[in-house]
Specification:
There is one protein chain. With 446 residues, the protein is an alpha/beta fold. It contains 13 helices and 15 strands. It folds into 2 domains: 115 residues, Alpha-Beta Complex (Aspartate Aminotransferase, domain 1); 256 residues, Aspartate Aminotransferase, domain 2. The strands form 4 sheets. The chain has a 7-stranded mixed beta sheet, with helices on both faces.
Length: 446
């Protein structure tokens, strides 16, 4: 049965009210090369033929024995308990609880997730999650502008380039000005028009930033400016100071490292936390615990939901937020299974293994470590032959590190190497041998 939501007459009436002459004019912000005039879809298949076709397609996937690729999506150990719990039908078939109080089981799970994230980060409040880390950061930037009534944001260099792109897209729609600066120039750029400072720690290059230095500069020069920190791999909280101990106003992160498979780059989990005084400006939703009016029986309820589906759109602080319930459940089960000591062990292994690889690469002729600060699980390396390194890694069944020139064209022959607890001694030894062989080949040519 065909489904035609609007006929030409209805479309014309809507365009007239909006003030647009055509649909193309209405969608003029969309690049022309993204418009599809004709899908040319093939005819349907039987179930057996479709399954065979999908099987053939799946065999094209390459599964590496070990990965040295990070840059925002990481391979970490996932306890079997995570998949066991999240595979239960009452969880994985559930969606946003619109009749919230009838969904006590899921409300409790979300409440426990908020609690564990708040304790881990030492922030006052945590919401029931955003889409992913990049949109959480963008929502935080818009939230800061709403709170302060200012329309200028400063990004400190080192934020994931894709996160920065999302922030710029959000802020463009809100008429918020964006400027990117290095930490050394931050003090000179601060003024009474700046709503917030955004920075990533550890940053995109793996550097562990001096948060106390950043917060002191901002508090001394611009006290009413909000400080927003983003993190792409929060396993580092097993050893690094939590943001709540460093006077951060809003802390956001990508929660994929907490029990969620990298898959093909998604789904993600947007962690969003803030100080208590910003509670009513937070996007998304908050689950609370209460008691019966007459009695002692406890229950869970939606305490706050500042999304456009529940309140007037112009009053909503967010228009695309979701509770990402299954992903937040995975993060909850992961953190409960790992516990304090388990997460600390993961963080230590990430730090120590990455430091070992960094040290070994620095001994090889032609390789230079570019990081000048301490790093967590990722670092920049200048290579004598990046194409050979990537090719030989693939030949040895290793997922190669990221060619950083994809984001920074000026950084030629530089890779971003990532090492986690999932990298075995054998895989690390193989990676070092590959680097050594490329160095030897280069020396012979010279």
């Amino acid at each position: 049965m065909n489904f035609v939501p609007h006929d030409n007459k209805t479309i014309a009436e809507m365009l007239n009210i909006i003030g647009a002459n055509s649909l193309k004019e209405l969608f003029q912000d969309i690049p022309k090369d993204l418009f599809i005039e004709n899908f040319n879809l093939p005819s349907g298949l039987s179930e057996s033929d479709l399954l065979n076709q999908l099987k053939e397609l799946s065999q094209k996937n390459k599964v590496y024995s070990s990965s040295f690729l990070g840059a925002g999506c990481y391979y970490h150990y996932i306890p079997s308990l995570v998949d066991f719990v999240t595979s239960r039908s009452e969880f994985y078939t559930s969606y946003t609880p619109y009749q919230a109080e009838a969904s006590q089981g899921y409300l409790q799970a979300i409440y426990e997730y908020q609690t564990i994230i708040s304790r881990l980060t030492q922030m006052d409040i945590a919401n029931a999650s955003m889409y992913d880390g990049s949109t959480a950061l963008a929502e935080a930037a818009v939230m800061a502008s709403i709170i302060t009534g200012k329309n200028s944001i400063i990004l400190i260099k080192g934020i994931h380039p894709e996160y920065e792109e999302v922030v710029r897209t959000y802020c463009w729609g809100q008429n918020i000005n964006i400027e990117t600066e290095i930490i050394e120039n931050l003090e000179d750029k601060l003024n009474n028009k700046v709503a917030a400072i955004l920075f990533q720690n550890p940053n995109f290059f793996g550097d562990i930033e001096d948060i106390f230095k950043i917060t002191k500069i901002v508090r001394d020069k611009c006290p009413d400016c909000l400080i927003i920190q983003v993190m792409t791999d929060p396993t580092c909280l097993g050893i690094l100071k939590p943001p709540g101990d460093t006077d951060i106003d809003i802390f956001v992160a990508e929660g994929q490292s907490f029990g969620i498979n990298p898959s093909f780059g998604g789904p993600g989990l947007g962690i969003f936390t803030a100080k208590q005084k910003y509670l009513r400006k937070m996007p998304g939703r908050l689950i609370g615990k209460t008691k019966e009016i007459e009695g002692q029986k406890e229950g869970f309820l939606l305490t706050l939901q500042a999304r456009e589906q529940h309140i007037r759109r112009e009053k909503a602080s967010s228009n695309i937020c979701t509770n990402q319930a299954l992903c937040s459940l995975a993060a909850l089960v992961y953190l409960l299974a790992m516990g304090r000591t388990g997460l600390k062990e993961v963080a230590l292994q990430n730090f120590q293994k990455a430091h070992f690889v960094k040290k070994e690469l620095s001994k090889i002729h032609g390789y230079e470590i570019l990081n000048k600060k301490p790093t967590y699980n990722e670092f920049l390396v200048k290579c004598p032959n990046i194409k050979a390194l990537i090719k030989q890694c693939k030949q040895q069944n290793l997922q190669p590190p990221l060619d950083i020139s994809r984001y920074y064209p000026e950084m030629k022959n530089v890779v971003l190497v990532c090492v986690t607890e999932m990298n075995s001694k054998d895989s690390i030894d193989t990676f070092i041998k590959i680097a050594q062989s490329i160095s030897n080949d280069k020396m012979e040519v010279e």
